[in-house]
Amino acid sequence: MKYIIFIPILFFLSAIAAHSQEGDNSVSVSAARYIPSRTSIALQVGNRKIPITVLQYGEANGIVCINVHDNETASVEGAKAVLEITGGTLIKIENYKQRVIRFKLNGISYGFDPNRIYSRVGIGQTLRDNRSVSKPAMDEIEKFAQRVLELIPDSASCIVALHNNTEEAFSIKSYMTGGNRQKDARAVYANDQQDVDDIILTTDSLLYQKMADAGYNSIWQDNERAKKDGSLSIHFGERARRYINIETQHGKVEQYKEMFEKLMAILAEEKEKSPGEPKDSL
């Protein structure tokens, strides 16, 4: 495995001046903005080197975001705008703005979804979905998946997956009665004032409840019964790790930013109330 590392540079922009207007309750609070340090890593898969970018906003604070689908750009744009203020880590797989990663091994072409590779079963299924499967290809992808997981430290207090979706192809309806993922959910909250495509899915009961209380379409994954599809949510659910997927329709940067801001506010409030104490989660 080869790593290409650029020297990190971290500094702050000047603070934004606070201001308020008479009769207006909104106040813009003075805040320094982080410019992230950048580390570039190249992971080999067959004949390809897959670049992975790690952006560190400020000091590590336990919040680790990951974007595995390079075509889901609105989620990354929305999250970056918030991380500049809150700090945190962002891991991003680079793949020419494509969802499926393609490579050749022993002269044979393969493709896989990088959110279906965190179990042997998931790897086999995503290869079959992309029309070619072999044991050598499964072994190669399994090594890649392990290296991606190694980028997420054990000290991470919350793992945030950054995703976008296509209109009603994957939505809160998928987890409601009659939906194709109904059995994967332990609890579902649907707000009929919200777009069905704008959702959060989490392994954690408290995050589910707090995001639902804030009015966002929310799914609490059934970590025992959910389909073992090789996704990160299943991987971390099986290990009792605190994970949340924030997802909006493609292009909805402002909605994504709003939902991500709410999550970060919840996490900051928890940390302030009980620093160093473990959170209730399932």
Task: Provide the fold topology.
Layout: E1 11-12, E2 19-20, E3 27-28, E4 34-35, E5 37-45, E6 48-57, E7 63-67, H1 73-86, E8 88-93, E9 101-105, E10 108-112, H2 120-129, H3 135-150, E11 158-165, E12 185-189, E13 199-202, H4 205-213, E14 217-221, H5 232-238, E15 243-249, H6 253-273
Parallel strand pairs: 7-8, 7-11, 11-15, 13-14
Antiparallel strand pairs: 1-4, 2-3, 5-6, 6-8, 9-10, 12-14, 13-15
Describe the fold and architecture:
With 282 residues, the chain is an alpha/beta fold. It has a single domain (31-269), classed as Aminopeptidase (3-Layer(aba) Sandwich). The chain is built from 6 helices and 15 strands. The protein has helices at 73-86, 120-129, 135-150, 205-213, 232-238, 253-273; strands at 11-12, 19-20, 27-28, 34-35, 37-45, 48-57, 63-67, 88-93, 101-105, 108-112, 158-165, 185-189, 199-202, 217-221, 243-249. The strands form 4 sheets. Strands 5-6-8-7-11-15-13-14-12 form a 9-stranded mixed sheet, sandwiched between helices. Strand 9 (101-105) and strand 10 form a beta hairpin. The chain is globular and about 55 Å long. Mean pLDDT is 89; it is low at 1-30.
Please give a quick description of this structure.
Helix content is 27%, strand content 27%. By secondary structure, the chain is α/β, with parallel strands linked by helices. The chain has a single domain, classed as 3-Layer(aba) Sandwich (Aminopeptidase).
Provide the descriptors you would attach to this structure in a database record.
Aminopeptidase, alpha/beta, 282 residues, nine-stranded mixed β-sheet, disordered N terminus, two-stranded antiparallel ribbon
